[in-house]
Design brief:
This protein is mainly alpha-helical. It has one domain. The chain is built from three helices and no strands. InterPro entries: FtsL/DivIC.
Length: 99
């Protein structure tokens, strides 16, 4: 009688468990909480927030400039005139308003 060259059941179980662990860790590396897809989402969110921050910093700089130009130490009369016209709806006595 000749002996069969089939692998034993233990070897098959070992390779199945190793394969399943490899599939699990590959899936976790791609789709998990710290995986590649999450890293791409975080990078995109970081870029969007950086753009928002730059825009807000520009707005703050503009507001600081306007505030300084209307301060007691430095008064820009043209800006004061513009603000009085737009906010208060005021006009000079020699002007005519056409609506």
């Amino acid at each position: 009688m000749s002996r069969s060259h089939r692998p034993g059941l233990g070897a098959v179980v070992f390779f199945m468990v190793a394969f399943m662990l490899g599939v699990y860790f590959t899936f976790a590396a791609v789709q998990g909480d710290y995986g590649l897809f999450r890293r791409v989402e975080i990078a995109a969110e970081r870029d969007a927030l950086s753009r928002d921050l730059a825009k807000l910093e520009a707005e703050i700089a503009e507001m600081e400039n306007l505030t300084r130009r209307l301060s007691d130490t430095y008064l820009d009369l043209d800006l004061l005139d513009q603000q009085a016209r737009s906010v208060l709806g005021m006009i000079r006595s020699d002007e005519i308003v056409i609506r």
